[in-house]
Amino acid sequence: MPDYSRNHYIPKWYQYLFLPDDVREKKFFYLDLTPDTVSNGKKRYKRKALLRWGPSKCFYERDLYTTKFGEWESTEIEEKFFGKVDNFAVAAVEYWSNFKNPSADKKSFENLLLYMSIQKIRTPKGLKYLANLVKLSDKNMVLFKLQELQQLFCALWTECVWSIVDASQSETKFIISDHPVTVYNQGCFPRSKWCLGANDPGIWLNGTHTIFPLSINKALLLTNLSWIRNPYSNPLTKRPHSELFRGAIFNFTSIQTGRILSEEEVVAINYIVKQRAYRYLAAAKEEWLYPEKKFNFRRWDEIGSSYILMPDPRSVSFSSEMFIGYENGRSVAFDEYGRRPWHHDYADKKRHDYEWHTFHAFQGEYARLFGPKRRGFAFEFGGKGKTEDSEDYHAYHLSLEQRHKPYIKKKRKRRRK
What are the boundaries of each domain within the chain? Predict the structure, then answer.
């Protein structure tokens, strides 16, 4: 009989995705970043930080999701809510781990989006974050609020540019933490107020990227469109139309695939994951747990300014208004940030014109830094997007930086990997 009081906040099925198929012993190197100090009656000592455990012993707490009313206890949230979530998430994560354009599975998109939103707040760190957000201290009420707000992040993630990256050619592979839906903002260093305790930089902040490892070799990176259009702006300002619970449009053809990460890039992503973990990390190899030993950046913001988490802007279209027509003749309109025609900032011409210049300057800078071969491509004009620019088109992209650079108010120093 299942033990519904033993709550894996990182599901076992997800953990197995980070263990190679060819290993006989399905165990992680499991790292406790803050091991407890205990007493054996004679002396106090610190527990062992590195353990060799399988998924059944990793990332769980007893009665994390159990609700209690006096002497009465209920495990229904684990059994009926998280059980259902994990059931539909398995196929969704597999679909996205193997995603190839021009596939467009609406159900897999909706299921992954909902799973990620719930996963971000079902961990010990996420539950404390949610408790602070809704200003509740009662555990039962926080768990009920989790179910009520399960779509908290869905609208803004829908409007992000999605990029699926591949670590198959890197010796180092992806690790997982006890808070696997990880966010990075180059303006929020780990000891800043945005990152202390259970805090996380909001996904509604302009420069926030969301990182979600899909397997040992694949990860999903989500980036706000406003940040791609102007990565020279303040990463801590809110993105346009940052309201959370609303409708949003997703474009499957804009998903970028085909990017193969270097060893340095995988290490940098693992470094972010470790820095944003709450207490525990797991990896198939012990050395992967210590990305700081290979980390080549001096400062937190250099990860962002090196564009490691950015999709290739040359494969991002500069769209504005979108119209959807229905068989009954009705139509609806949205701008690129999900605003409707009655919104006071709908199709903001001033912002649009400024972003036109900063976006093209970024395309030119990116071409200069990384060359004509694209680091991710979408599905364009009914076919596979460009994987490499011709000599003339690359020269055109290079010219954009100088042509549009005068419109950038503040230019940060950039460094190539």
Answer: 6-308, 315-407
